[in-house]
Design goal:
189 residues; mainly alpha; elongated
Amino acid sequence: MDTSTARSDLALVDRILRSADRSLNVAPLIFLTWGLFAAIVNGVAQARAVGLPVPSDGSFQLPLMLLAIGISAWAAHRHDTGRETQIDSQAGITFGVAFGVLLLLNLTAQHRVIPGDGMSLFWAGGMSIALLVVGLQASRPLLIGGIALLAAAVVASFVPAWFHGTLVLGWVAGLVVPAIVIWARRGRG
């Protein structure tokens, strides 16, 4: 067998394995980072709602979001396993599209068309959809996290005094806890 035939055969095997591998290899630090980011944003909003003196959203949200983006990029680069499965690619697209659409709505519609509380529900609902889609395909912890985040978004509307506090619980149950579970499973396996 010559070199070009061997490379071609190996590329074919790699494509077959990439399609057949249903595992999710996204760095858990990414889910942890975004879960904490959202919990902090909603936690500050809840603190404001109960009358505590907290900084304005503009003073911390953008720097915190840029930090979360930086940590996510670093974690993704550091976590590179050498082989990206088709599920990994689809998960990246799913979360990327959800994040992009929600960020665009946030930048263009919040406080003009959508009140701040409504925007919080958009973020929780949009990310719960992404978690549910990826969870149904490859990750029981993310599926359960998507259900928890969606449930928190539904319940939050019925407890207006603790609206953002309920969403904090949803973000923690939806992203932070699944990240820890995924991390623990990888540590054992």
